């Protein structure tokens, strides 16, 4: 006997369903996907990321948001990156953010595959996105995917604690170490003794 096929949800069905639920969910284009909590270190990195963006993007023409701001990606999928930056005018009642230029994801063990594979493809399908920054959460390090035009393939760069991530799309630079302010990793503690 075969299992019954379930039909895919629409984006509107997802938004209506998610509005009545506790917790956070993304929409993979077919059904809701629960977003689990992370470690304290993960939360500190996200806080530092938002502080770094807020300090540099105060002019109002570049707006940092997240993690409750949705990005429509492939088909009807909706992702909620840990942070994003848009240069578009915002509608306070919108359920997704238009004109997203840069997205940031902080990895966790439960999201690593999705962030490194599935979201790389989904964010590449969004014409306005020029940079996707993936932040490690178990060590200091970034993977930066960038492109100058929507039809270009991503170019990848890896950065570590002594590097600076340059984001010309939004006219800012941030020392990588700033994203990790207040987080210590076991390997670093052992190296210092």
Protein model, in words:
The protein is of the alpha+beta class and 193 residues long. The chain has a single domain (38-191), classed as tt1808, chain A, CATH 3.90.1570. The protein contains five helices and twelve strands. It has helices spanning 11-19, 40-56, 112-124, 176-179, 186-191, and strands spanning 24-27, 32-35, 63-65, 71-72, 78-79, 83-86, 100-106, 131-135, 142-146, 155-159, 164-167, 172-175. The strands form four sheets. A six-stranded mixed β-sheet has the order 3-6-7-8-9-10, with helices on both faces. It has a two-stranded antiparallel ribbon with strand order 1-2.
Topology readout:
Blueprint: H1 11-19, E1 24-27, E2 32-35, H2 40-56, E3 63-65, E4 71-72, E5 78-79, E6 83-86, E7 100-106, H3 112-124, E8 131-135, E9 142-146, E10 155-159, E11 164-167, E12 172-175, H4 176-179, H5 186-191
């Amino acid at each position: 006997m075969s299992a019954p096929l379930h039909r895919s949800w629409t984006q509107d069905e997802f938004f209506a369903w998610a509005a009545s639920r506790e917790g956070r969910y993304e929409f993979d284009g077919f059904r809701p996907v629960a977003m689990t909590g992370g470690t304290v270190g993960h939360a500190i990195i996200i806080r530092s990321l938002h502080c770094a963006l807020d300090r540099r993007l105060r002019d109002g023409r570049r707006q940092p948001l997240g993690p409750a701001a949705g990005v429509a990606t492939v088909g009807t999928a909706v992702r909620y990156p840990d942070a994003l930056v848009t240069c578009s005018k915002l509608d306070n009642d919108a359920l997704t953010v238009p004109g997203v230029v840069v997205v940031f994801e902080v990895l966790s063990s439960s999201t690593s595959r999705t962030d490194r594979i599935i979201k790389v493809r989904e964010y590449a399908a969004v014409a306005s996105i020029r940079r996707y920054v993936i932040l490690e959460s178990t060590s200091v390090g970034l993977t930066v995917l960038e492109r100058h035009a929507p039809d270009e393939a991503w170019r990848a760069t890896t950065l570590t604690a002594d590097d600076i991530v340059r984001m010309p799309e939004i006219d800012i630079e941030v020392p990588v170490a700033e994203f990790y302010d207040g987080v210590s990793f076991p390997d670093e503690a052992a190296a210092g003794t």
